[in-house]
Amino acid sequence: MYSGRRRRHNRTGPFLGLLLLFLLSASAVFVWWWVTQPNKEHETPEYMTNPHPIMLNGEWSKAYALGEGEGLWVPLTLVESMMGDGVRYEAGTESIILTTDKSVLHFKTGTLDATLNSKPFALRFGAKKVKDGTLYLPFAPLKQLFGISTETGGTTGIVTLQTPGQAIQRAVVPKSKNGNGVAQVRSGPKRSFPIVEDLKAGAALSVWGELEGWYKVQSAEGHIGYMRKKDIVLERIDKVPSAAEENEEPFVPWKLTGKRVNLTWEAVYTAHPDTSKIGDLPGVNVVSPTWFQLLNGAGDIRSKADAGYGAWARGRGLQVWGLFANSFEPERTHAALATYETRSHMIQQLLAYAKTFKLQGINLDFENVYTKDKDNLVQFVRELTPLLHESGLVVSIDVTPKSNSEMWSAFLDRGRLASAVDYLILMAYDEHWASSPQAGSVASLGWTENSIARLVQEDGVPSEKLILGMPFYARQWTEKPDGNGGVKVSSKAIGMNTVAQLLKDKKLKPTLSETGQNYVEFQEDGATQKIWIEDATSIQARAALVKKYKLAGAASWTRSFGSDGIWQVLDQALQSYP
To answer: Looking at residues 103-110, what average pLDDT do you find?
Structure first.
């Protein structure tokens, strides 16, 4: 009996297994069929919660516009993210400043009165704040200055912003074989995602990317989603037109074709130099007298300009770039840079001085500045340059080599400054400064080259905008025993003629050092004297760096430190090609 029952059990087992297998297969087929069916549900995107969502670069910006057409307003924060330094808001005075290469537009919240390059300008729509404190800017000046364009969905009200020069891939929904052609924009790159918008044959699209066989698209109504690649046909690539002012002739800062800038600073302390005693300066094409100083935090400028010196320079065919310094006073500088009003006050004075003394340029020398004023300095330069260019003036700014020093280096955003001026002048000195605890070169050649390379490579400063500042002075270092087993170090700056006379008087013979300069060392009054010399050897090597890095030219500090023969040496080394 036992074995019989066993045989009956074996006959039913395979049947149950096959039935189970069939049911599992059928379930799998049903699941597969269910999953592969396209989702026919429609959904309203999150961005349609409020009117006029703003789309940018194929994404919802998370912001909304106000109004429409010519009366369109967009949030300040969004415009700041788009235009960077071109947009500035100062909450204290509710001032909005829009800057480009050629224009400075200033206006305040709630008023239609504005100034464009310091001249009266009437706005059709002003900036306004809403109840939650969000500040909105009128779209019209953004279009005029920056060339931002807009498209608005006819039924959705979705606003799409486009920036000048932006390339946009255009596409279209093709007709199907029966001529009907219908496609869906979905919220994700699968057919299981709900439908955002139904499109008919011929519907225009913009394509913003590709993902897993789907295109990320934007419809003419402004909706953003995904479509299968086979459901659309790529057409042309459109480029958003540039701003109107970008099509104007650009300002040309240097018109001496084939000649590098060869600038020398004229240090003016108390008395003006006697031009009859200056002598020839062969090769020099720009002089920059230190004429203008920041007097106080209100932005007043003190002038030491001399019409006689200007006439002497012009008589020799030299350009005059008047130097404006911040007096190296950080508190004074902080106050003067803090507001549009004080910055504008400085700019207007510089324009007046430039006109009075027939200048061809302004050279800015801001040193000993708080790091917190980095952005304010950039803003000052952005507001200054268009107005000076309008008057035909070249704009340059002096910068130190990069270092960890807060007051002398960290406040300088060299890349942003370079984009706002005609020239950056790298003051490639002092590697070892007046009170340095260790004697050394004012500017060894290796240190100088590294300083150039860092600005070009790390900060993106265009080489054609960079001028190499060279020292025409050396430091005579004195090392004395301090009585405690150590050495007391002191120094004084001496010009080329003084060094040459010292070598002659003491019958000293310099040797070439690892710094790339001639070096001399001697004993005097129980102390060791050391000098890393600036002469034809070092100046020729510095000029070689100008050519190696294809820089705009050279600048020398200062004219009074140079020897009679050094000008010819520099000219020949600087202007010779290659």
So the answer is: 96
Q: Given a cut of 90, is residue 27 above it in pLDDT?
A: no
Rounded to 5 degrees, φ, ψ at 216 are -85, 125
Binning pLDDT at 50, 70 and 90, where does residue 8 land? very low
Q: Is the pLDDT of residue 243 over 90?
A: no
Q: Helices 330-337 and 340-356 sit at what angle, rounded to 10 degrees?
A: 100
Four-way CATH pick for 261-471+535-575: 3.20.20.80, 3.40.50.720, 1.20.1540.10, 3.30.360.10: 3.20.20.80
Distance linking the first and last C-alpha atoms of the chain: 112
Given a cut of 50, is residue 2 above it in pLDDT? no
State the DSSP H helix or E strand holding residue 376, giving kind and residue range, or none if neither.
helix 374-390
Nearest to 187 by CA among 175, 178, 196, 179: 196
For the residues of 453-505, what is the DSSP string, one character each?
Answer: HHHHHTS---GGGEEEEEESEEEEEEEEE-SSSSEEEEEEEEEHHHHHHHHHH
Q: Which residues pair with 323 in a beta bridge?
A: 363
Count the Cβ atoms, other than its own, within 10 Å of residue 102.
18
Contacts of 417 (CB under 8 A, 6+ apart): 377, 378, 381, 397, 399, 424
- 46-162: in CATH 2.70.40.10: no
Residues 185 and 160 sit within 8 Å (Cβ to Cβ): no
What is the pTM (predicted TM-score) of this model? Answer: 0.90
Q: Tell me the per-residue pLDDT of 534-544, one tens digit each, with 9 for 90 and over.
A: 999 999 999 99
